[in-house]
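Researcher: I'm preparing a figure for a lab meeting and need a structural model of a single chain. I don't have an experimental structure, so a prediction will have to do for now. The sequence is pasted below. Please return the structure as tokens so I can convert it later.
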Amino acid sequence: MIVLLVALAATGVVALLLRRRDGRFSTPAPAASASASSVAVDGAQEPDPGASSAVAAEPREVLTAEEIGGPLGDRLTFVQFSSAFCSPCRATRALLSDVVATRPDVVHVEVDAESHLHLVRRLNILRTPTVVVVGPDGTVLSRASGLPRRDQVLAVLDA
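Model: Understood. Here is the structure written out token by token.
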């Protein structure tokens, strides 16, 4: 009985943490796995002591209009990865379509995750919906997994 109660409590805590994180936009990790100013020591990456501290930031992932199957916006593009059976994907589509309807410099492109597995793997998309925010040059600026709220989307636009 105690094991059952502990398991139930742990499940509740995990559910609350996931719900709190759901739909929040965060800055993605750089595309490269190791810094240009690091060296391998016994299989692990260690900072290079001879490298300058003013090393440029690692490059971010870049998407092209051909890869996503739609145009990039003049200011931002919301690239939504969806699947056919996903009901939060429909709500996310409606939300993003409504938000970009009032902004001519922002575009919403929906990508079928099942048909674009190469992008899903490359961007490490683990669930649908996932919204990737792309700049006018194709650089991935931010991403959110799960159904975002309107205020979260508007905060990204205002940033």
